Amino acid sequence: MYLTIKETAEYLSLPETYIEALVHQNKIRYVYDGQVYMINKEQFNGHLDQLEKAKKQLEEWRNEPIPEDPDVKDED
Q1: What InterPro entries does the annotation carry (predicted)?
Q2: Fewer beta carbons within 10 angstroms: which end of the chain, N or C?
Q3: Pure H helices in 1-76
């Protein structure tokens, strides 16, 4: 499925200017029909999967309890 720059920006939650810059730098694949840049949505699936995986790992790390340190002395 192909998206316009505006639709791609909404899909990735990024500014349109950033997507335009990526297109002009050839960092993402696109098709130009003479009027509109069309970007293949499928090329972002791997990136989005990795992003979700990283979010889950970070959440697990944040929820992990801090282990008790036997060498901590109460100085009160």
Answers
A1: HTH_17, SinI_DNA-bd, Tn1545/Tn916_Xis
A2: C
A3: 5-12, 16-24, 45-63
Pairing mode, if any, of strands 30-32 and 2-3? unpaired
Three-class SS state of 30: strand
Max Cα separation, the chain? 74
- Residue-level pLDDT at 45: 83
Would strands 2-3 and 37-40 be described as parallel, antiparallel, or unpaired? antiparallel
Taking domain 2-62, whether its CATH number is 2.60.120 is answered by no
Q: Which of 37, 39, 36 is nearest to 8 (CA)?
A: 39
Task: List per-residue pLDDT tens for the chain, 76 residues long.
Answer: 899 999 999 998 889 999 999 999 998 999 998 999 999 988 888 877 888 899 999 999 999 888 777 676 666 5
The one-letter amino acid code at 34 reads G
Residue type, position 46, single letter = G
